[in-house]
Amino acid sequence: MNTKWFLVLLAGFFEVGWAAGLKHADSLFEWLGTAVAIAVSFGLLIYCSKKLPATTVYAAFVGLGTAGTVLLDMTVFGEPFSWMKVALIVLLLTGITGLKMVTHEKDVAAS
Amino acid sequence: MTWTLLIAAGLLEVVGVAGMTMVNQQKNIRSWVMLTGGFGLSFLFLSIAMTSLPMGTAYSVWTGIGTVGSALVGMIVYNESRDAKRLLFIGMIIAAVIGLKLVP
What we know:
The complex is a heterodimer of chains A (111) and B (104).
Chain A: H1 2-24, H2 28-48, H3 54-75, H4 83-102
Helix pairs in contact in A: 1-2, 1-3, 3-4
Chain B: H1 2-25, H2 29-50, H3 55-76, H4 84-102
Helix pairs in contact in B: 1-2, 1-3, 3-4
């Protein structure tokens, strides 16, 4: 069961990559990387939603992407540090961890 | 007009997520059109809406409609779990994402 969630996490990383790319890319190479990141993150999502409910996968993906983007903005792109944001990220990660715990893989044949 | 576009973007996101489910059930053209068309148009409309609405507001409304809508469609149409804890955790994620977009 952990492989699928690891892939959701990986999809989140790629989402942070292309979100940053859409904002900061300024060369052909960087735009190409952004396009690849979009394709990889959605490919992983589709793959994960084979075994896990699509909404669960998507909510976790959106959450991880947002948390990663906010963290990257604060650490790399010079956005001011905010305790409020850190608290919200903790809430977000609690939600994702909880969601992982209550999600059972579905039998492919049954769907 | 901008708000209509933004709401349409949220609804198209729901279509995209439904497409994710559909593609795994039946790999036909319709499923792929829902998936790529849904997300593609959704991002396009969102980016247009963001040119005249504040980014945080636009993104929050979009995520809210998209994720809540997907959860409803998932439960009603695709038989996803209605477990109260699952809904609570999805709610926590949505609330945190909206908070992160609105906190200055």
